[in-house]
Design a protein that fits this description.
With 300 residues, the protein is an alpha/beta fold. The protein has ten helices and twelve strands. The radius of gyration is 23 Å and the shape is elongated.
Length: 300
Amino acid sequence: CNVATTRHFGGKGKHRYFIMAAYQPGPAQSEGVFSTSADGVQIVVDDLGPEEQEKFRSFADKVKNVKDQSPEKMLQMLQEEVGQHVDEEEWMGQAEVRIGIVGSSGSGKSTFINSFRGLGPKDPNAAPVGTTETTDNTAKYRHPEQKKIILMDFPGALFAPDGGPVAFDAKEYTTRFGGKMEECRVLLVFTSGRVHDNAVWIARKAKEMGKKVLFVRSKFDLDVQNMKRDDPEYFKEGEEQGEARLLEKERKDYVSKLETMGFGRADIGDVFIISGLLDNIQRGRWDAPALKEAILKQLD
């Protein structure tokens, strides 16, 4: 089959659309493929409604008769036909995978953002660590090796124009950041110590948007230190066994707390217990490897 162009773009929400224009007469009909009146032009669709299917049929008809089949021209026509913005980077096959990171100041999210990218807190391009949160802007950090992965750092609080904190309001947060949340493939909700109401509200809103939500309890190294100080007997069977027991206890407690606070029943496999320090991430301690795998899986 002489394929002239194969392109994809991401629509809002969960839909992703794939369009293939081929110059081979009489293509066979198959599941998920819609033939059009334009000979040899097919639309491969994923989870489209009737109106969307019709738009793409119409688009394929037009494609057949256009001499300029460059990606730029196809993008322009698709925007006009579908009536919505089409991300140019995705159309050109260079889509970024945005991973949302949300959590209050001190939850360990900035430390993780740096460590996941192999950076220390003082390295160039490192996210600020240990500072009081005073902005309501998002910040983007690209992975130096997995360049399609963008970590998007969301504030965990709301601030007035004068910079002072205001009472958290889920509706206002969604108004300010809902668009950015929609851009994310998955959101990582960071906490350390107790689970904060703000984080649970944001997680619930992300779930309502149809986003995958993963929960990260950071600073497990401090939890271990505190347990060793307060209850040395906890580790009488060995340090590794004690850490494993404590990790699973915190994971189950986290799931229970989320349900109590109104998020619903989270999958226990969606809760990760880590220390975000660079050495612990690089050594793959505790749930660091599983969390890294969950993030890289978003590239599939």
